[in-house]
Structures are given as C-alpha cells and as structure tokens.
Amino acid sequence: MTKITAAITAVGGYVPDYVLTNDILSTMVDTNDEWIVARTGIKERRILKEPGQGTSYLAIKAAEDLIKKANIDPKDIDLIVMATATPDMMVAATGVFVATAIGATNAFSYDLSAACSSFLYGMSTAARYIESGRYKKVLLIGADKMSSIVDYTDRTTCIIFGDGAGAVLFEPNQEGLGLIDEYLRSDGTGRDHLKMEAGGSLLPPSEATVKNKQHFLFQDGKSVFKFAVTNMADACGKIMERNNLTSDQVKWLVPHQANKRIIDAASGRMDVPDEKVMMNIHHYGNTTSATLPLCLMDYESELRKGDALVFAAFGGGFTWGSIYLKWAYNGN
User: Fold this and answer.
1) 92 & 202 share domain
2) Is 282 a catalytic residue?
3) N or C: which end of the chain has fewer CB within 10 A?
4) Is residue 332 a part of any domain in this protein?
C-alpha cells in the first residue's frame, strides 16, 4: 500500500489595509527609518484598524481567500487548526468561531499556541491527521493581531510586529510529496525572555497589571536574538543533514520573518543564496503565526511541483524547529 503523505494543495492570506511605516513610527517613538531597517530589515507593517475586530477577522479573511482560490466547499473541510498567540478571548477558542463563520459546519476546530512557532507546529499537527487516513481536508490558519498586545511607546517592540493571517490546505498525497520530515524543539528556560506577563492564570488582570503595562508584549531583545540565531540555523542544518539535502537541492528556505539578521544567519548556515530565501519582512514585519503562510502566499506563483522547501521558525517559550516539505503543485 502506498504511503499517505500530507501535502499543501492551496494557499490563502490576508493583511489589513492600513500601512504603518517607519516614518510614521518615528513620530510616535524615538526611532527612524534607517535605524529600524539596519537592525530588522522592516520598512512597514500592516495594522488592523477596524473597531471591534480581532484575530478571528484576519483568519476568516485568509480562509475565505483560500476557499475562493481553491474553489472548495467549506463543508468538505474536516478540521481547522488555528495557530495563534493572540486569540480573540480566553476560554472560547478562536478557531471554533472561524470555522462557523466560514461555513465549515462539518469541521471540528481548536487553537494551537506556540508563539512564533505556532504555524510550524501546526504543520506537524495537520500532517498527522492527514497521515492517519481519517481526515481528507485539514485547514491550517496562522493569524495574529499583534497590535493588540504591543506598547506603541516601547521602541524595542513596536517597530517589529504587524497584523496578518495566512492559511494552507493539507490533503492526502500518494506521490511522495508534502511533509517529509520535521525537527521540532522547545526550552522552557526562555520563558521570561519573550512574554506577555499578565492576563493568564499566573497573574490575572488587575488595576496594578494594567497600570504597570504588563498586558503588553515584553522582549529581552539580546537574549532572544542570540538564542534564535543559534537554534533556528541549527534546526535548518539538522533537517538538511538528516535528509541528505544539499543547498543546491533546496529550492526555497521559508523562514519565520522575525528579523532579517536571523534569516541571514539561517540561510548562511544552509549555504542557501538570497534568491532562494522567501522574504517579505520589509512589507509586513513580524506577524508571528502568519509569517510562514504569508511567505507562501507571496511566492506561490514561483513554486513548482516537487520543489524542496525548508521551513524554519523560532518563538517565545522558547520554541523552534524546521520542516522539510516537497511542494505538490505548480503555482499560478
């Protein structure tokens, strides 16, 4: 019997209309375009301005884009995995609401949270459901409204993050295409270096937590950068070594869009030239769970059946890893 693999068969995405440029940020905090670009590679990011709308709004838009492009019936979707670090609310899973909103009435859904590695971990999760043979269409969505937890008086974080969403559809494949291998890791010693301190069960909301700005994202930039550079590059190296992949065989590196210097370190470790590295950080910034699928959305037309893709991500917790996937269709 031919082995079932989990292949990506469709891609969709969405970013808000409002563009927050470096020049606009320079009127809000002590920074400038040259300083931001030199340290991050970011020139602008998208921000969701619609009142009363959260991460689910972004996710629904991305899912609808995929459904329209792939011409599928939402009722045929078996499962929706919602990768996010900024759910609409606590307790009630955002993915459940998204499934109902897009008409996926035969699907069950849940949220998966692993900071900036959420989508990468979600790829592994979605693949296992497909490989089981029980599920035929699994929709994986990565979406985050990072502007909801960013302090726009803190120049160390507000220059980095943007809002956005991307979605991919996983389906069974019997040609040896799809997710081939994964190397996923985590280390809880990094918990205090990248976090939102208040709002969870450890430190519930209070007047004091709001006054102390503990509901905003905190990042120890130097520690995160050092750990990310080392481990994301290491994960890429290991996935290549384990699968006997050479830099010539890797068609695309699909890296988490956190910082251009981190991406350059990973591609350098793999000896992959710039023209093989998916990069859109200059337009969107770090959209957390959405960076990987937004890369696929932007580069879809350049992808060809059989292309070897190496995905890599790093996130708070710490979480990180790499995935080797063979692309299943010609982009159009």
Assistant:
1) no
2) no
3) N
4) no
